[in-house]
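This section describes the prediction task in plain terms. A model, or a person checking by hand, is given the sequence of a single protein chain and must write out its three-dimensional structure as a string of tokens. No templates, partner chains or ligands are provided. The sample shown here is typical of the held-out split.
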Amino acid sequence: MAKGRETIATGRRPVKGRLLRFLVVGAGANLLLLMLTYTLLHFGVPALTASVVGYAVAFGAAYLAQRDWTFSDISSGGSTLSRYAVAQVVCATAAGLVGKLCGSTLAWAPLETSMAVTATAAIMSYAFSKYWVFVSSES
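The expected answer:
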């Protein structure tokens, strides 16, 4: 019980469950992207605009949730937003290359290609977030 009070008193969350919180935030961000893009397309917004707006909103929500919930036990130094943006660009590029490799070069089925792309993005995003974006300034 003393440990629980210490966590509440310091405002820090224990590390246990971080991967689950990361997955919940990621799933929520993807659902938000899907809903926003669909809604914008439904109301006649051009596809490129709908995609970019949906992604920008989902990106912002995911960043805030990762910073304030998933990695809230880490006091980060410097700007985590710029590192998060760079990490997401790298993840998106790698996921695109995996999609190209699996879908075009290896001729995998759409489901298997989508699974490989999703796994690549998720694993890389978690690694970047844990080891580069949201690192303690005391490390």
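For orientation: DSSP finds five helices and no strands in the chain.
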